[in-house]
Design brief:
With 171 residues, the protein is an alpha+beta fold. It is built from five helices and seven strands; from the N terminus they run H-E-E-E-E-H-E-E-H-E-H-H.
């Protein structure tokens, strides 16, 4: 059986951002991708009256985990005013016949910080046990979350679609 090839790495992030943006637009949310190397988030979901833009971070993976880099990007991720409002984790897998399977996990920033804290806590415990009580420096690692730990967040688009900040008050 031939080896399954996925999306080339240099296209993976872009494919995920466009796919998530498309999914939001199809659900009635005006969403647009941000470009450039100085961007702070991947997508803006813009309110009906153009008064508010929600910030959305997209992480795309072809594996069993998503690299978040939360602990490396922000010292206090849960309280950072520059943090995204939402995270959409997009898993795309390709089978040997070339068909794609997709999964979306939608989390608030608070939810992903809590999940990452649990994952990091488990890592700290394993590290400490292996290194005779020594504590790891999380800021130098690469934070990631396993797909199996995200099932409760699968396809929770309503978090974004029904967000009050997007709807605004109608006159």
């Amino acid at each position: 059986m031939p080896k399954t090839t996925g999306v080339p790495k240099y296209l993976l992030s872009l494919a995920g951002e466009f796919r998530v943006c498309s999914e939001l637009n199809k659900r009635g949310v005006f969403a647009t991708i941000t470009y450039g190397n100085r961007k702070s988030v991947d997508i803006y979901a813009i309110s009906d009256r153009h008064e508010c833009a929600l910030r959305i971070e997209v992480k795309t993976s072809q594996k069993r985990n998503f690299v978040t880099r939360i602990g490396q990007k922000w010292k206090r991720p849960a309280n950072n005013p520059n943090a995204p409002d939402f995270w959409v984790l997009f898993q795309v897998l390709r089978d040997p016949k070339g068909h794609f399977a997709e999964r979306f996990f939608v989390l608030t920033h608070s939810e992903i910080c809590k999940k990452q804290a649990v994952r990091n806590g488990a890592y700290r415990g394993r590290f400490s046990k292996l290194h005779h009580g020594k504590k790891p420096d999380i800021s130098t690692g690469v934070d990631n979350i396993l797909v199996k730990d995200l099932k409760e967040f699968e396809n929770q688009w309503s978090k974004i679609v029904d967000d009050k900040r997007l709807k605004g008050s109608r006159s």
